[in-house]
Write a structure and sequence with these properties.
It comes from Plastoroseomonas hellenica. Keywords: Hydrolase, Metal-binding, Zinc. Its cofactor is Zn(2+). The protein is an alpha+beta fold. Helix content is 32%, strand content 24%. The chain has helices at residues 9-20, 29-45, 107-126, 151-159, 207-219, 259-270, 297-312, 328-333, 361-374, and strands at 49-53, 62-66, 74-79, 96-98, 101-103, 135-140, 163-165, 176-180, 182-191, 195-196, 229-237, 243-244, 247-256, 274-275, 281-290, 319-322, 338-339, 346-347, 355-357. A six-stranded mixed sheet has the order 1-2-6-3-7-17, with helices on both faces.
Amino acid sequence: MPATDIGSSERLLAELRGWVEHETPTTDPVAVSALIGRAEAELRGVGGAVERVAGRNGYGDNLICRTPGEGRPVLVAGHLDTVWDHGTLTSSMPWRVEGDKAHGPGIYDMKAGSFAAFHSVREILRQKVKTRRPITLLLTPDEEVGSPTSRAIIEAEAQKSCTVLIPEPAGAGGACVTARKGVGRFVMTIAGRSAHAGGNWQDGRSAVVALARKILEIHALTDLPGGTTTNVAPVFGGTRPNVVPPEAGCEIDFRVATVEDGIRIEQAIKAMAGDDGDGITITVTGGMNRPPMVETPAALALYERARGFAAEHGYELPKQYRGGGSDGNFSAALGVPTLDGLGCTGAGAHAPFEHIIWRDLAPRCATLCALLETIEG
């Protein structure tokens, strides 16, 4: 058990409700920064050394809070942005508790986990619990779109740290995460030549047809046994059915198991760019967004420590290799021992039935808090 009294699941749920009912779509920096401000005030009030990094490029602020201590800190990092637009709370996903499930936009991914990290650090400071290493809490505004403005901060703090803990939501069976696929994103745009679809079809060069061919090439790069997948969506092109379309485009997502596969896929898609000499020009932008998070002996040692604490708190903690990326990909790629998926149980990330199993809030938070107290580096 942690030395810190983290309270009951009922207590945690009551405060978490305020975070969920404060809607924070990534695209609204004011809303995200306002929740950052609420966390900042609480942490300053209990003596945390707080730094607020102003948002940029249309994203919200970042918050860094440090606790006292000697040596390289333990970093615990979570994001406050969600995929849900304003008004979701009053339309399709109202806050509600039904039995063991608590529903609301972003509650599972990942306000419950970020709140658990915040709550643990706040209570360690409030109760003046001595930890073996200092703690750095990082709350970020843009994970749901690839962490474009927070990545440098995450990597800088990770490089200073002995260990990184990521309270992203737990997986099936309550699993935490010791490995993740790498993630890449591209935008492909195609310029062709317009013409009347009936009167002079032969003079046109269809950007849509060129795009269709490229989509099939991209799809063919998928290698399920090797852990590589590609996906094209959304797709756009053309204006009217009687006009040969002069422009088309798409976005491309790819997932890979290894750095080498990431380089291979990136090179293959970038090689599709160029001019075919017959009126079609293809432009490709983007690349790897998150490197693979590879399971290491250090990550497994962290997992075994967490599993032991979980057993003390009355639950099993399996581990999982997950296809989705997180900010843990960044720290793991730097060689810093990283354990992910330490948030609450539940289901429905990015889906209308998103929920947590709220009775698991206290035991899951207790495990996270025990790790923060006892990791020695």
